[in-house]
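Help needed: design a sequence for this.
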């Protein structure tokens, strides 16, 4: 039923669908419905699942495990690539540390070495990475400065009424302001 809802949403809005698959026996069904299939942080080392999505001919968004090293993350991507799927997107979504000021520590220092070691695109998820909407804009700007290829942002017209993740979700005016700031920051960085 959930996959039918996704298909109706795409038909109605034209927005591409990214959704997570958690079970190996659901890979094909999710692959048929989603535009991008996500492997979440808790499944980054689920090798059976990684091998299965490697057989899909659809982009795979591989979120970094919450306690995974750069090498472990790249090795997880290799499981997908070995299956013949070359469309892997790496997503930094924060790692567990001793901090108590945000949900996770968004490790932007991983972007330059990832880009040096791999040809795969790297995106940042500051919403999950920090868990706090006030931190999302500055971390998104920092992700552009460190060389990330993109960012995943949670946006809602009224984040306080969002059914999930409201505390890390920005509203439309904040998103519009952030987009303007990103365009301005891109100029001196030479990013198009």
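Sure. Designed sequence:
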């Amino acid at each position: 039923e959930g996959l039918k809802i996704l298909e109706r949403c795409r038909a109605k809005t034209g927005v591409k669908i990214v959704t997570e698959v958690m079970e190996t026996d659901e890979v094909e069904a999710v692959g048929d419905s989603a535009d991008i299939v996500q492997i979440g942080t808790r499944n980054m080392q689920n090798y059976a699942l990684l091998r299965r999505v490697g057989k899909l001919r659809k982009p795979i968004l591989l979120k970094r495990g919450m306690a995974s090293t750069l090498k472990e993350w790249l090795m997880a991507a290799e499981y997908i690539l070995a299956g013949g799927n070359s469309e892997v997107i790496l997503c930094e979504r924060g790692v567990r540390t001793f901090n108590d000021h945000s949900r996770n520590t968004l490790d932007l220092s991983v972007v330059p070495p990832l880009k040096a070691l791999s040809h795969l695109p790297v995106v940042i998820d500051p919403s999950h990475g920090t868990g706090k909407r006030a931190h999302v804009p500055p971390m998104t700007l920092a992700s552009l400065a460190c060389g990330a290829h993109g960012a995943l942002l949670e946006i809602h017209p009224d984040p306080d009424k969002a059914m999930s993740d409201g505390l890390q979700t920005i509203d439309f005016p904040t998103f519009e302001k952030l987009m303007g700031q990103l365009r301005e920051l891109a100029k001196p960085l030479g990013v198009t």
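Helices lie at 2-13, 27-33, 47-53, 70-82, 111-117, 126-130, 136-145, 172-189.
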